[in-house]
Structures are given as C-alpha cells and as structure tokens.
Amino acid sequence: MVYDSPDLRPKSSGLYVGYDITIASTLPAVPEYNLQGSFRGMGCQTVVIGPHLPTIMYQRQIMDDWLKTVEDIPWDPLKIWTASSAEYKWFGGYQFNTATRIPAVRVACSEAQNISTSGRTVSFPTLQQNTCWQNSSSFEVSALNSTPTPHIRTTWIQLPPVFGSVSTGLILEAPWVENEESRIVVGCSIDASWVQNNNLGFWSDDSGYPSDTPIEQWDLVKGLVGIIAPTNSGSDSSDSQILLDENWLNILTPKIGSETNGNDTWMPTTLELLLTRSALIDNDLSNSTNQTATWNNVGNGTPNRTVYLEWMVSLLVADGLSRHGSAEALNASGPQSTWNLLDYKKTQDFPSQLLQGQQALQKPSITNFTTLKMNIIIQGFSYQASSATDFLSMAVLLAHLVLALGHTIYLLIWRKSSGCWDTIPELLTLAQNSRPAHSALRHTSTGIKNLHTYAQVAKVRATRPLNTDIECGNSSPMHVELIFNEEHVPSEACPSPTSDDRARLVASAATWLAHKSNPSSSSIDTFSAFGGSAHNSDTVLLKKWKGTSPTQQDFSTVSLYGPASHEHEEIHPDRLYG
Question: Which of 312, 327, 342 is the last residue of a domain?
C-alpha cells in the first residue's frame, strides 16, 4: 500500500528548522510532554531532545499542590509578616524547572543504495562525537534479509566502533521492485546521550519541555547541541553516551498485529507502520524507473526522504528514552484511572515547607534514590525586574519617591504649604492679573530659545494695583501677582511728589487727550503721558496742582499708559505742574 502525501516530508531548503512535537497520554497520572528538535538542511545532522518523563510527572503534581497552597494562604492585615507569602497568589504567570539529565538523539542516514538479492554491504554515516558527520563507511551486514517483500522493512543492527560515536544502527529497506531483483537500502547511524539540562513546565499549558534554550540558539555545528550539551576538547563529564541493545529496541518497536492481502501476510512493527503511513514511499518513487536517483534527489524545494527518515527515527528514539523509568514512578495497582505517583508522601507541615522551598516530601523507604530540586518561578508586575523597561520604570518611581519624601520633610520642618496655583487655569489667571515683566521678559513672546529666559525666577507676591486711584494715607486694596526678581516693585506707600519726582515721572513726552474726563468740572483735567518705549504699559498716578495752595480739588489726574492714543496733542511737562 502506498500513501502519497509529499507535503509531510521536510524540504531540502538548506536551513535549520525547529519543531515542537507534543506527546499526549491517556493516563491521568502521565502529563503531556514535548519533544524539541531540528532536522538538518544540507549540512549537519538531525537532532531531537526530550524531557525526562518521570521528572515531569512529579513536577506537575508538585506544581498543582503549590497552586492550591497559594490559593489558601490567608491575608491578615494585622500580621504583616504574612504579606510576603500572600503576594504569591497575584502572579501573572509561572514556570517550573528541575535540573536533571535529558535524552538527546542525533540521527544521520546515508544516501539510498540499490542492493540486489545477493548484496550484503550497506553504507552508514560515521559520527564523530563533537562534529557533524561528513563521511560514510561500508559495513557488511550478514543478517540482511534478502527475502523480497512489497512492504517497508526495518532492521536494528549494532555497528562496530569504526563508525564513531554511535548507539545503534538501523537499516531501512524500501519495497522491492516488481521483478524482485533489488530494492533501495538506507543505513542510519544513531547517537543517543544523556545530557545535563532542565525539565520545564509553563502556566500556559500542562506540557513538559526538555530545555529552556530556544531552538534557534542551538549550536548544531558542534555535534549534539552545543548549548544544551557544552562540548570542550573532550567528552563532557556530565554527559554519557547510551548504548541501545537489541532487546530494548525491540520493545521500543514491537509488532502490532498482521495485515493480510491475498497470499501476502504482513506483520509490521510500529516503526514500519509509521513510515508506511507517513508517505515515505509514494507513487513518484514506486513508479520511477530509477528509484535510487529519485530517492537521492535533494534539490531545493523537493521533499527529502533521507532527512524525513532521520527525523522520524530520532523522534522515536528520543520519545522512548524520555519514558525511561516512568513505570517505576507509578503505583500501577488497580484500574488505570486510579494510578498515582509512587512515593509521593507529604510531610506534616507540607504547605509551609513547600512555600519556604524546604523538604516538602518524605524520603522514600528505599535506600537507592536520587534527590532532585524543583524551582518555581512566578512572573508579575511587582515581582522581579528583568527588562530595560522594568528598570526605567523603577528609576522613575524612585525619583518620584525622593521628591515626595523631600517635600514631606520640608513640610514637617517649615510647616508651610499651599494648595494654590496647582492647575493650568489658575496659573493663567494669575499671569493675566499680573503686571508685565518689561525687564525680565524683554522682547519675549513666542519661540523662546534662550536659556536665560528659562532661568528667570518668579515669585507670587501681594502688591497694590498701579492703576488704583486712591489718596495717600488711606488703605488701598491688595492683590497677588507673579513678579520676577529683575522687576522693580513700587512701594506700597504713596509718597509726596517732589520736584525730582515730577521730573522723573514726566521725563518722556506727554500727551494731552482731546477731551475732559469730567466735562462738568473745570478744575480737573485728565492727562495721559507716555514713555518712550511702546512696550511700557505701567500705570502711574500723577498729580497736577492748579494753584499755589493745592487742595483735594485743585489737581487733575495724569495717567501714564502704554500705546499712544490716536487722539492726542503734545504738551510741555511744565503744563502738567502749572
């Protein structure tokens, strides 16, 4: 039977592509877990790593208990020491990991060979421990099955040391050609090792992951996985190669029944059935007049059967090694729905020990066991700073804290405070009711660029309005203004004018308005005198005496304003004072 689905096979793109493969389980006590890997492009080997499933099983149970414990933490405002534990329940996400040894598998397969009935020599890649494979060597396989078959056939074989760092070998035989004289044969070298890394779990799903290193960062050129299994000038002492014997491999790929088609009875293994259903052998290959050339056609964009075979075999072996020891971790008595973890016995003070990171489980009764430590990491806005934006936010908050603390200390020492002018409308109103700053803000309007202008110091002071017509000696109304240090603020008193004052006040040309302010009074005239600067809008009170003995009715009011009136006539200063 031929399954024609070429899209399932990886393309020969020359790029490293990473994948996550989720392995589900029907047993409640066995969580999902993920295999991670990358199949080769044109150059290096296919690599797959997996988590240690027994460790994942205990991790998931501990994590579930931790979440329940956190939810039950009471919050008592009178017991401030409980705050550090109560804040755990407000996390935004979490992950957990356990440092342990995980399986890493690399597989390299040779090009397809056309081997006849009498042929026994098969080519296998030579795998060096810390480098990618480049060469292949031939090996005479005396146990090679020469019986013609229309089905895929696989055979596990032990390779000699000449093939380098290999755990086992695999021979794939494609269905024989119609005349049953030959078939395609591919030899694969498999290297499996235990490497030191982390078993991971995340809050977003219930799956276990084998590494916290993104696949894009794997250093595939250095052999297994450069970051996951660091390689120096020799074998890493924390890593160990796995030798896969025939008994374990047969358990990994058992026969799963028989299929009968006429006189043909086929009893496939799980691997043979998987490869058959995955369209490794399709119509293009079966109908080709040169099957070997068709198989080895690895042009860009074409399905690469050799790489696909490497990928399937590496997933199979990595999955089998990930499950190693899982049977010993389960209490398998009774129905499967009641199976639970073996030796998962909590201490009497389990919640407190769990939250404090202490020994939360009782030691098993056996003497030969390994103790693993699980780390739980929770994420949240107030837990840990990890990015540049976090540190920037902390810096801004710290600066605000320093300002607030300094202001509080100032209030406590000087005991002065004000809630005025803390809004934009209040500031605009204050500025509108204040006198112009001719000196400090001279020639200033829009487009302020001079730093000297920004350096001007302004204060809010209580002053007397300059244009208030009052008599000296009487109290005058006060109001607040925005005053700059460089500006001259007149005295609050009303001084008697002297000859010097008269000369100073009318030093500039004055203007006589063409009309009287009070036409019914002949003794009071209104004058408007203007300074030389058009921007000078200060208002000043002047007095004009009509006789030698002035009284309250014997003077007129002269006002100094800014812009000149359009109806005026010039007068001499002597006319102002008679």
Answer: 327
Same structural domain for residues 61 and 12? yes
Residues 21-34: tens digit of each pLDDT: 888 888 888 888 88
Q: Containing H/E element for 66?
A: helix 53-71
Give the number of domains in the chain.
4
Compute the half-sphere exposure of residue 382: CA atoms within 13 Å on the CB side of its CA. 6
Residues 473 and 561 in one domain: no
Residue 225 domain-assigned (yes or no): yes
When pLDDT is averaged across residues 429-438 and rounded to a whole number, the result is: 89
One domain, residues 98 and 181: yes
- Greatest CA separation found in the chain? 149
493 or 108, which is more confident:
108
The pLDDT score that the predictor gives to residue 204 is: 53
Q: Count how many Cα atoms sit within 13 Å of the Cα of residue 184 in the half-sphere of its side chain.
A: 23
Higher pLDDT, residue 86 or 481: 481
* Domain stops at, among 303, 327, 351: 327
- Residue 340 included in any domain: no
Share of the chain above pLDDT 70, in %: 69
Q: Give the tens place of pLDDT for each residue, 274-318.
A: 999 888 888 888 888 888 998 988 766 667 889 899 999 999 999
Q: What residues contact residue 542 under an 8 Å CB cut-off, 6+ apart?
A: 497, 505, 506, 527, 529, 557, 558, 559, 560, 576
Residues near 185 by Cβ (< 8 Å), separated by ≥ 6?
A: 112, 113, 114, 115, 119, 122, 144, 171, 172, 173, 174
CA angle 44, 47, 52 (to 5 degrees): 160
Share of the chain above pLDDT 90, in %: 22
Q: Which residues touch 197 (CB under 8 Å, ≥6 apart)?
A: 49, 99, 100, 101, 102, 210, 211, 213, 228, 229
Reduced 3-state DSSP string for 263-308 = CEEECCEHHHHHHHHCCCCCHHHHCCCCHHHHHCCCCCCCECHHHH
On whether residue 525 sits in a domain, the answer given is yes
CA distances 448 to 373, 428, 430, 437, 443, Å, are: 64, 18, 21, 15, 10
Q: Which domain holds residue 431?
A: 418-442+451-495
Q: What is the pLDDT of residue 396?
A: 96
